[in-house]
Amino acid sequence: MIILFCIPYGLGAGAIDSTVNNYVALNYESKHMSWLHAMWGIGTIVGPYAMGFSLSLYDKWNYGYVIVGVLQILLCIMMFVSIPLWKKSSGKNNEDEEKLVKEKVSIKEILKIKGVLPLLICFLCYCALETTANLWGSTYLVYNNSIPNEIAASLASMFLIGLTVGRILNGFLASKYSDDFLIKLGQGIILFGIVLLFIPYSVPAIIGFVFIGLGCAPIYPSIMHSIPLRFGTKNSQLLIGLQMAFAYLGSSLMPPLFGALASTFTLGLLPFFLLIILIVMFILHNIVIKKTTINNLESA
What we know:
With 300 residues, the chain is mainly alpha-helical. Helices cover 87% and strands 0% of the residues. It has helices at 2-27, 30-58, 62-81, 83-89, 93-102, 107-112, 116-145, 149-155, 157-173, 179-197, 202-216, 219-231, 233-264, 270-299. Helix 7 runs antiparallel to helix 11 and helix 7 runs antiparallel to helix 12.
């Protein structure tokens, strides 16, 4: 039943991801986008505690899902009640909303825009890196650094803590620096974190995962926020929806791929795996900058 109900739950989550990101990208600044995703980080930290509360107090995992379900229902009610506030906040974009709806753009047309395909694959790489580092971090610490299971499991949350704190801090940096600069800054910090993983000692490895989380912090919200400016408001909703699809592909396919590699060879491949993804992401992001700059010149 859980697997069955994951289907509508996933459809709803995908709709929320694409529309809320597009709404914030169109109506708010880059710092607001970063703080929006910092709340996601807090949710990833709070969620396991809800399950732990259910197991420790009631000795039943089912109640963990009940807690999350109640929160989702309350969130749904709040969303419907607050619809007038959302419309009011969108300001001038409300005036153009009907035009944008009428001027529907197809996926085929979106994919023909210069820079779109590299952007989608770049986003896939980012989500692949983030999810692989998060899911395999504790296992890597156990088998590669001989850290006890219990300690490694608790240390794995350091990645998410780094990610969340980084996004809060990034909100302040976003007021002074461009989205592209913050993306490059994040990639540089991730590189430093990966380098630390190559050091065969526990402490550098633990610090490395924290820095990878910090580096991931500005990339997702900065890419999202730059979409309307880079590709136009007419294309932003569908393009952000496609981005989310590629994000889920990266998150779903790459961790199992690394698992297959690790079981065939060794878990010590994790830093190499992350480094390759980072290099591909860096190259594709630079292609996007170059292609969209050409687009802007042509449109001018």
